[in-house]
Design brief:
single chain; 127 residues; 3-stranded mixed beta sheet; 6-stranded mixed beta sheet; 2 helices; alpha+beta; 2,3-Dihydroxybiphenyl 1,2-Dioxygenase, domain 1
C-alpha cells in the first residue's frame, strides 16, 4: 500500500528562525511556505521534501535523520565547508571517516553534519 507513495522526512527545531537561516545560508534551501512561523516545508530533487517543525525535543536524536544522495560526496563536502558547514568525524568499528568522509566496504561514500538544531544530516554517494 505505501511502497509506491512519496515519502518525506520530518525534522525538529527548537528555534524555527535559526533553522530557516541555517538551511538558507548554509545549504541554499528556501522554504515553500516563507510566511509560516512554526514550520518550514522544503522541496528537493524528484519531488522529495522535508518538513521542519518547532519543538523543544530538537537535537535529542543520536541517529541520522535525513540524507541527500549526491553525485560526488567530496565535492559537496568541500562546497558546504566553504559555507561554514562542519562535518563530523567518526571512528567506530566498521566506520571511520577521513577528512569527514567515510568509504563503506562496498565503495559507497558518506559524510555527516549537524544542522543548527543538532539534527544529524548526511550526504551519500553510491557506487
Amino acid at each position: 500500500m505505501l511502497k509506491d507513495q512519496q515519502v518525506g522526512a520530518v525534522l525538529p527545531a527548537q528555534d524555527i528562525a535559526r533553522a530557516r537561516a541555517y538551511y538558507s545560508e548554509k545549504l541554499g534551501l528556501e522554504p515553500e511556505n516563507p510566511d509560516a512561523n512554526d514550520n518550514l516545508q522544503y522541496r528537493c530533487g524528484n519531488g522529495t521534501g522535508f518538513f521542519i517543525y518547532q519543538t523543544s525535543n530538537a537535537g535529542t536524536a543520536k541517529n541520522t535523520q535525513i540524507g541527500w544522495m549526491v553525485d560526488d560526496v567530496a565535492a559537496t563536502v568541500a562546497e558546504l565547508r566553504d559555507k561554514g558547514v562542519k562535518f563530523e568525524d567518526y571512528d567506530f568499528p566498521g566506520l571511520k571517516t577521513e577528512n569527514g568522509i567515510a568509504t563503506m566496504p562496498d565503495g559507497e561514500k558518506a559524510a555527516w553534519f549537524l544542522d543548527s538544531e543538532g539534527n544529524i544530516l548526511s550526504l551519500n554517494q553510491g557506487i
